[in-house]
Amino acid sequence: MYCYHHPDRQAVGQCIECSQAVCPECKVIFDGKIYCNSCIQKKVAGTVGPASVSGQTGNTSGLGSGAAVPAGLGEFNWGGLLLTWIWGIGNNVWWSFLVFVPYLGWMVMPWVLAFKGTEWAWQSRRWESVEHFKKVQHTWSVWGWALSITLAVLLLLLMIGGALLLVWGISQTDSRWY
Ligand SMILES: [Zn+2]
Ligand SMILES: [Zn+2]
Q1: The whole model's pTM is what?
Q2: What number is the average pLDDT over the span 21-35?
């Protein structure tokens, strides 16, 4: 028997709701029973709160704030630190908008996202797999760095330009005076 979503993978069980065959990645154990990704989503959305979501294994992404976070997702989230709310939109992490709170939000929120972002992104959005999640988060960090470096270079050029203009201005006044 092969997985319903991954015809090349051997199935390890069957969803008790829709009887689809599931591979280790598609399998979610909930209350000791096997579910597929879509049925657990419906179940969690419809009947149970995040608090009762415990003892789950497999792909638990998108199951809400109580969902188990697999090991090895990568801890520090550069995308969250550098792109804050933009990263938040892409990852369904609405806490990231606290970055707009003056002073405290500006200073604290990027760091909260850097350390908690990975967990929140995993819990609040559905990801195909741990690998998919890591790949997307890596892309975010690349963009975060690219944007930060571009901005830093622009700022530097602006400062050099400003300094040059100032020097030029002073030399102009000087020549008039002498
Ligand atoms: Zn199912
Ligand atoms: Zn599968």
Answers
A1: 0.65
A2: 86
Q: 160 alpha carbon to ligand 1 midpoint, in Å?
A: 61
> 117 C-alpha to center of ligand 1: Å?
29
| 129 to 23, 50, 62, 122, 126: CA distances (angstroms) | 12, 20, 11, 10, 9
Question: Ligand 1 centroid vs 54 CA: distance in angstroms?
Answer: 19
Report how far ligand 2's centroid is from the alpha carbon of 69 (Å).
Answer: 19
Which pair of structure tokens corresponds to residue 95? Answer: 């806490």
Task: Compute the chain's Rg from CA coordinates.
Answer: 24
DSSP 8-class letter at 37: H
Cβ atoms of 13 and 57 within 8 Å: the answer is no
Express each pLDDT in 73-132 by its tens digit: 877 999 999 999 999 999 999 999 999 999 999 999 999 999 999 999 999 988 888 889
Helix (H) or strand (E) holding 33: strand 33-35
Asked whether 109 and 98 are in contact (CB, 8 A), the reply is: yes
In angstroms, rounded to a whole number, what is the distance separating the alpha carbons of residues 104 and 95? 14
The residue whose two tokens read 């294994």 is 57
